[in-house]
Amino acid sequence: KGAISFTDVHFAYDPARPILKGISIDVPAGKTVAVVGPSGAGKSTLSRLLYRFYDVQGGSITVDGQDVRDVTQKSLRAVIGMVPQDTVLFNDTIAYNIRYGRIEASDSDVEAAAEAAQIADFIRSLPEGFRAMVGERGLKLSGGEKQRVAIARTILKAPPILILDEATSALDTKTEQEIQAALDIVSRNRTTLVIAHRLSTVIHADEIIVLKDGVIAERGTHGELIDRD
Ligand code: ADP
Ligand code: ADP
């Protein structure tokens, strides 16, 4: 079993309309598995179940061998980092927004210093215009800039498991490519579940799952799926 394992998962928001009808997906430790499929196929529902926004109605989900129903949402958040489609920022500085969620966690000065260095490294890697904005308020950022903040937050948290839920789908093509490059770096050697709407954005995934009408229609590498088309 992988670091993340969905086994025969069933779920419906409305009992009359099943969304997931027996889904089994394994994400081995350090690997990247992508779930693609048309809008409404149930892709985001998988990430919501993994994060315990909802609980499965049949089957099970395990993280490192432990059933997520036996784990609190708080402890799940400690091991799973999520970059969502639309990042909601606080009306505070970008620096604050990047640090959000880590303030309580870092109780020693040493840790705080290490964090500051990590942030500084990340900031230095950013385009100049964005770098200048770090002391400014987050609310006026564009979609791409908000996603950079979300990625910075995730890098800082360094979670062993990563969920990328259509993290670039709200962006224009050029920004999407930039953000995608950053995400490829963050997900390397990390257990990653990617939710995507297009096959072309998940070329590097170790396995791609195609979800359709609540079941797995196809699975394979990017090359294998392209060949079958
Ligand atoms: P995808 O991510 O593949 O676009 P979702 O997992 O978001 O699909 O949604 C799957 C289906 O479930 C859609 O038809 C959507 O309308 C429905 N759905 C999503 N969230 C809810 C909800 N909270 N209540 C009822 N139906 C929902
Ligand atoms: P922890 O404090 O356990 O590290 P948080 O509860 O702060 O985790 O949040 C986990 C992740 O979920 C954060 O990295 C953040 O990106 C995201 N998140 C939390 N709250 C929101 C929110 N209101 N809107 C968007 N993303 C959020």
UniProtKB/TrEMBL annotation:
Predominant localisation class: membrane
UniProt-annotated location(s): Cell membrane
Coiled coil: none
Keyword Phosphoprotein: no
Protein's UniProt keywords contain Transcription regulation: no
Annotated keywords: ATP-binding, Membrane, Nucleotide-binding, Transmembrane, Transmembrane helix
Domain of life: Bacteria
All copies of domain ABC transporter, residue ranges: 4-229
MF term (GO), any: ATP binding
Family as reported in the entry's similarity comment: Belongs to the ABC transporter superfamily.
This protein's name: ABC transporter ATP-binding protein/permease
Classification lineage: Bacteria, Pseudomonadati, Pseudomonadota, Alphaproteobacteria, Hyphomicrobiales
Shown segment, full-protein numbering: 363 to 591 of 630
